[in-house]
Every structure is written in structure tokens, then in C-alpha cells.
């Protein structure tokens, strides 16, 4: 394993009963930059994230993060270890303010740390202030700081997605997993998010994203892997992927599928 790899999947398979959703997936995510995973609907992309984040165990194969085997770790342990994610379907607390949504993301670390014992003390209060300041900063990264005290439910769909991203960052991850971050966004929101994700990567977070929007993926990612029927069929830079005959056959020729998927996600 090269030292430069943050995450390594080795011969990873996941079966559901007789359904072989992932088969012998090998994937190295280098430290730094933006990595993309694309593939048709049902290819197994979200399952890859579910395995990495410990929501599901692998059927076989291993996943290493910073050289450590993730087998048997619970999702909260994996989050604490430095991997955060967003979900294909938004999961935010709609009745809470934006600021509260983001500070809740930090609580995982605060609650289990020694600070939990100091509740009510001066040190705890200064720690809370630090958390709120950081939450505001993270909201500013996705241009939502001016709405910090609004209720999340009042946000547009695109802004709710951005809030989810800020909340994922609140755990101070080394690796940020984004599952279809621009699904349901209009083109203005997509362009804004593209710049924001670039800035997040420039700040040192490694980004690994699943995305359907080809222009978005090709514009952002240095490296892209293509999953088809549970197998990696290609890996390379945007130009290499765009011109790969197998990829064109499996995926890029199927614009209809993408359009349907976007409508479903937006609904
Ligand atoms: N928990 C599960 N139980 C049974 N089947 C699942 C489960 N999760 C995913 N699948 C199946 O695995 C396949 C791949 O799903 P998924 O990883 O969500 O694909 P993608 O994100 O590429 O669209 C689908 O056929 C889906 O129905
Ligand atoms: Mg998916």
C-alpha cells in the first residue's frame, strides 16, 4: 500500500442474499484532491459509501483508512476516526437552525471527549463558543452564514444540501464523502457548489464524491473511477474516462437514465 493513499479498498465484495451488488472492488483514494465515483443507477455506488462508513459490513475484502483496517468499527467510531459523509437523500434537522444543525455535528466529538464532564463550567462555555464560531465559519464556506439563525426547513433544496455539507465538515474529517451533492440543484446552485467544493479541497480535506452530473464530475475531479454492475470498469483522469469505450457503452450513452434519476431525486 502506498503511503500516499488515504483509503484503500481491497477485493471488496458485498452481497445481499443472492444479489452480488459489489464484486472484487479495488480502489485507492489518494490523500488530497477530489476523487469521483460514477456509474449507472444501481451500480453499487452508495453501497461503497455504506461499507466505508460502517453502516454495512463487507461480505469479503478489506477497507483500510490511513493504514488501519476498518473492519468491525461502528459508524460513530469511523466518524471520529476522520471520515464524514452526506447522504443521497438529505438528512438534516429541519426544525433546528442552521447553526444548531452544524454544532450537532460537532457534538459527536464533544460528548465523548473529556469536556462532557465539564458541562456548565467556564471551560465548557468557552468550548461552546469555539464550537459556534467554527460552525459559523463552516456555514460561510457554503455561503450560508447570513442565514445561521434561520430554521433549516425554510431553506431552498440546494441550500439544504449545502447545509448538510457544512454539517459533515463539523466533525473535522480527513476524508469527506459526498453522495450526489448536486442532485436536485439548479445550474446556478451547481456552479456555486463547484467553487465551494474546490475551496474545501484546497483547505486540505480529501473529497470523494459520487455524482451523476457529468459536467460537475469532469470539472472537479482529478481522478474518476467507474462502477458498473458492482465492478470497477475504468479509472483515470476526466479525459481518459470520457474517451473510454467501455465507459461510453456502460454509462455516458445513457442520458435518459440520468434525466430520470434527477427527477426522482428532486421529488
Ligand atoms: N441494504 C440493502 N439490502 C438489499 N439490497 C440493497 C441494499 N442496499 C442496496 N441494495 C441494492 O444494491 C444495488 C445497488 O444499490 P446502490 O449502492 O444504492 O446503487 P447506486 O448508488 O449506484 O445507485 C441495488 O440493486 C439496490 O437495490
Ligand atoms: Mg446511490
Kindly describe this structure.
Helix 3 packs across helix 4 (122-141). The chain has two domains: 1-27 and 42-73, P-loop containing nucleotide triphosphate hydrolases (Rossmann fold, 3-Layer(aba) Sandwich); 82-224, 3-Layer(aba) Sandwich (Rossmann fold), CATH 3.40.50. The chain has ten helices and ten strands. The strands form two sheets. It has a six-stranded mixed beta sheet, sandwiched between helices. It has helices at residues 45-52, 75-80, 98-112, 122-141, 157-169, 187-202, 214-220, 238-242, 245-252, 255-266; strands spanning 5-16, 19-30, 34-38, 60-65, 68-69, 83-85, 175-179, 206-210, 223-228, 231-236. The chain binds adenosine-5'-diphosphate and magnesium ion. Adenosine-5'-diphosphate binds next to strand 2 and helix 1. The site of magnesium ion has 3 residues, from helix 1.
Provide the descriptors you would attach to this structure in a database record.
267 residues; alpha/beta; Rossmann fold; 2 domains; 6-stranded mixed beta sheet; 4-stranded antiparallel beta sheet; 10 helices; globular; disordered C terminus; binds adenosine-5'-diphosphate; binds magnesium ion
Give a quick summary of the entry:
The chain is an alpha/beta fold. Helices cover 41% and strands 23% of the residues. The chain folds into 2 domains: 59 residues, P-loop containing nucleotide triphosphate hydrolases (Rossmann fold, 3-Layer(aba) Sandwich), CATH 3.40.50.300; 143 residues, Rossmann fold.
CATH names the topology of the largest domain as Rossmann fold
Largest sheet: 6 strands, mixed
Helix-strand category: alpha/beta
**So, the CATH homologous superfamily of the largest domain?**
P-loop containing nucleotide triphosphate hydrolases
Q: What is the annotated CATH architecture of the largest domain? A: 3-Layer(aba) Sandwich
